[in-house]
Amino acid sequence: MPPVRSRPPAPGPQPNAFRVIRYSVQPKNPAAHLFEVSVSIDTPDPAGQRFMLPVWIPGSYMVREFARHIVTLSAKSKSRRVACEKIDKHRWQCAPCKGPLTLTYEVYAWDLSVRAAHLDESHGFFNGTSLFLLPEGMQEAPCELHLQRPAGAGYANWRVATAMKPAERRGVSGKNASKRPPIKDFGVFVADNYDELIDHPVEMGTFTHASFEACGVPHHVVITGRHRADMSRLTADLRRVCEAQIRLFEPESGKAPMREYWFLIMAVGDGFGGLEHRASTALIVSRDDLPLAGLAEGGRASAGYRKFLSLASHEYFHTWNVKRIKPAAFVPYDLTRENYTRQLWFFEGITDYYDDLMLSRAGLISALEYLEIEADSIGRLMAQAGRTKQSVAESSFDAWIKYYRQDENAVNSIVSYYQKGGLVGLALDLTIRRATRNTKSLDDVMRTLWRDYGLTGHGVPEGEIEKVASHIAGTDLTRFFADYVYGTQDPDLANLFADMGITLSWRHAGNGNGAGDDSKRSESSVPGLGAKIVGDTNGDARLAQVFAGGSAMQAGLSAGDTIVAIDGLRVNVSNLEKRIRSYAVGSVVPIIAFRRDELLQRNLKLQAQTARTCVLTLSVVSATVTANRLKWLGQ
């Protein structure tokens, strides 16, 4: 990350490589959600040292302004107060001083997510981007972090979980790394530079811990929060996923790129998300999605547990794809502003493709279960009009202002570089397999990028992915990328699936509200509102999204409107769809709604329901096709 400095550096030598940044973090007041943080340097800039806090965190592409959570800040040098002025939204300027300089500040931590920081009496969690002010010009200096236990007898059992190296073990690698005590106590930790410091999230508190080895590398699972997870099954399943991914990138050596790895899991009542790091991932999941001992049916994973495994697989795949194989725009990161790239469809979307595929190859889900997941993804994408308006390359570039800031019209105007990127990855994989008679695949693209970019530290230039894929396929794939990545066309998956003995078909989605048997009605005869309906606090039917060209939009209804009556009869969220489906396509029915506190009367002309369900089925095929499918799915 380049220093943010508007004036030239001070004259004379700047031995930043030999200077150390010392940080201290104490959960000062867990009940008030306040961390006390300090940063100290021995030789501040004689012209006045500046400090900055990142405005975004790698892996989550939105400017989040973490500095807004700093409550108080003061500076001292040799016990004397030093003037320190905030000069913009994320930077501070200290007055010139001689000798050591220390900034002490409080950070409010009440964001229960994987992106920021959270602290209460039960635990503490933070990402360095939320807590650690960087002395400008010292981003390559080694860092020390002193983690302090909260004061009070009630915190005596708190422990620390992080992939960051304890100070006394700095430089330990190879076989000796496994001798490190897995669960750390409070004390001093070290990082080679600021980038490494902020890439090791920290969990502290009382938690459940289990460990396993994957290809000889220690892996740790830490769960914070109340839960009844079957830790034996969890670690056994994660081991299979991790080993499958390590051997994808290093099929001969089976060598992982980290000395140890940590799954830091927060179990909550309702939550879902993850964020990747170089040797760990932070996950937040529903405790009900974790495997419960003795409750598995025939060894099959529940839908919730499959969702959890998919998330863990996704974040683990990022260990290679985005943490080490990076877009050129991220080498190095500039954490003061947006970093634009049109490649997120690859770094997130391809990862999205592999997360469930690796569950299949690891034997954790069946081929049929994998196809169900892909069919659902295809169906959800095809229901979104935004896919015809925005390419995945454009979606990647505009992630900062569109994908992470979606409004009620997002379904009509944007496409997810995760979702469509994953299906482009599926199409690319099958296209390469077709071109090479299944002797090459997207796996070979990933291994080439790992060798040429991940292991060298060079960023992947724009356009390079297309060149590598074409080389692996042995044919020019320019048209593929023009149509599906830089254009808005949908990949011809039905045609590509046929190579694997898989048939893609569509059926009507059904109503899900007990409105009768729609299976006997053709798709063109089932009416639909053309909107996403949610219930408000009173159970009334509110339109959360209005789909472009649908019945609701044609009638002049908008997102946020509440429908209260149809054809003179009151409706609510539980019976609105049923009432709509009681009419024939083409019917015109009077509707009453409220927009804010204003009454609306409209005539609703019912169009055919366009929602469809994608179905993928296995066909009876030749032994060759079956072998190709097994080679792809790993079963």
Q: What would you note in describing this structure?
A:
This protein has 635 residues and is of the alpha+beta class. The protein folds into four domains: 16-206, Immunoglobulin-like; 207-293, Zincin-like (2-Layer Sandwich), CATH 3.30.2010; 320-509 and 622-635, Orthogonal Bundle (Neutral Protease, domain 2); 523-610, PDZ domain (Pdz3 Domain), CATH 2.30.42. The chain has an eight-stranded mixed β-sheet with strand order 5-4-8-2-1-12-15-14. Strands 24, 25, 26, 27, 28 and 29 form a six-stranded antiparallel β-sheet that branches. The radius of gyration is 27 Å and the shape is globular.
What's the name of the CATH homologous superfamily of the largest domain?
A: Neutral Protease Domain 2
Assembly level: single chain
CATH architecture of the largest domain: Orthogonal Bundle
Average predicted confidence as pLDDT: 92
Q: Number of DSSP helices?
A: 16
Strand element count? 31
The fold-level CATH name of the largest domain is Neutral Protease, domain 2
Give the SSE layout.
Layout (H helix, E strand, L loop, with lengths): L20 E9 L4 E8 L8 E3 L17 E8 L2 E3 L1 E5 L2 E4 L6 E8 L8 E3 L3 E4 L1 H4 L2 E2 L7 E5 L11 E3 L3 E2 L20 E5 L2 H4 L4 E4 L2 E7 L2 E8 L6 H19 L11 E8 L3 E5 L3 E7 L16 H15 L26 H18 L5 H16 L9 H6 L12 H4 L5 H17 L6 H13 L9 H10 L4 H7 L8 H6 L3 E7 L18 E2 L2 E5 L5 E6 L4 H4 L7 E5 L2 E2 L5 H5 L7 E8 L2 E8 L1 E2 L3 E7 L4 H11 L2
Parallel strand pairs: 1-12, 18-19, 19-21
Antiparallel strand pairs: 1-2, 2-8, 3-7, 3-11, 4-5, 4-8, 6-7, 9-10, 10-16, 12-15, 13-16, 14-15, 17-18, 20-21, 22-31, 23-30, 24-25, 25-26, 26-27, 26-28, 28-29
